[in-house]
Amino acid sequence: MTSRLVLAAVLACGVARAAEPTPDPDARLAPIRVDPAQLDRAARSASWRRNVGIGLAAPGVAMLILGSVLITNGTSDPNLAGGGAQIASGIVVAAVGLPLAIAGIVLWILGQDDLDVVSWRRKQQEKNRLSQVRLSPGGLGFSF
Q1: I need a labelling partner for 136 at 20 to 30 A (CA). Which of 53, 77, 125, 144 fits?
Q2: Domain assignments of the chain as residue spans, ordered by start
Q3: Which residues does residue 136 pair with via DSSP β-bridges, in sequence order?
């Protein structure tokens, strides 16, 4: 009796739901149609992200270099107080420069990647637009 109840519960829980229709394979392989205005907005956003990344990475790397120079110079200073102050200021400058450099490099890479995607999509749209132009026996023809 209990085995029948367990079997009924398992069957009730495992009721198959209606299968979703499979997408048309041609629809998955169709080229993405993107509005040129949308591509322009994406290019502006990616360009802004890349430029902000460059703007953050440059001072961040400069601060890291300056901090390492201060630390190195402080270790070779015979005056203990002066050397300690240089080492401490070098650590502070490098600690501020490191997050700036990391954030800048990440934004720079992501922005450049997005710009590459936008330029690739523009080339693909141009290629698709040119593939619609065909030579016909009577002259130049367009396919829609």
Answers
A1: 125
A2: 36-132
A3: 139
